[in-house]
Amino acid sequence: MKKTFFILLLISVTPFLGDSAYASSSSDCDLCKALLGQVDKECMVAMNCSDEQIIAIMEDTASMLPAMMANQARILIETYGYAMSQLYNIGHDVDTVCKELALCSSGGGTEPCPDCVGCNTTDWRAASTGYQARIYEAVCNCGVCNTKVEYRCADGFYGSSTNGSSGCIQCPSLNGVYAHSYPGSTTVTSCYIAEGVYVLDDSGTYVFTPNNCYYSE
Fold it and tell me: What are the pLDDT digits (tens) for 91-143?
């Protein structure tokens, strides 16, 4: 019984790696191709796989390898898994992904992990109308820049936003003159007609002085 189980296990693992990788090599290049090769098979059937599904497939594949190779595969997944799934999901084939991450060179060896170009945080800048955005965290993961973005309301708007497309409301107007607000304002009482601005109504023209005139509820 023990002998039969070993033979079945060997047969089930071998297709994941291919004969040469399973028999003679456990390099990062071979492991990258083996893990993504299984992703390619399963995601081609499913037609589409999320990043989470791709990583789960790679982890399942790694768990079926011999102990030493399994440990190396898990480390590779922890280090490069998200970048591998992103590159695969934008249409790169297995060989291209492994080369892009410098796990494989053109000759099949390994190279240092590449840097990202322009992977930096940013100051607040204009986004869509009424919104500003900034990158507050930027982490380079082997050639792939993973960023986190936050949003706030721009001058003349108030509220809060998590997506840069909803949540900010334009400040009220007074006889056609729209109020200002400081970027990041969250309440309507932050809106104001600036000092020195002329406003026209039926009684004539007037100006607010000596201070800004804030909206009140």
Answer: 888 888 888 888 887 544 445 666 777 788 999 999 999 999 999 998 887 77
Containing structural domain, residue 62: 2-100
State the DSSP H helix or E strand holding residue 14, giving kind and residue range, or none if neither.
helix 2-17
In whole angstroms, give the CA distance from residue 143 to residue 125: 25
What's the half-sphere exposure (Cβ side, CA atoms, 13 Å) at 109? 3
pLDDT tens-digit map of 176-206: 889 999 999 999 999 999 888 888 877 777 7
Q: Helix, strand or coil for residue 199?
A: strand
Query: Does residue 140 sit in the same domain as residue 186?
Result: yes
Strands (E) located in the chain: 125-126, 131-141, 144-153, 157-159, 168-170, 173-174, 177-178, 192-193, 198-201, 204-207, 213-214
Domain-located, residue 33:
yes
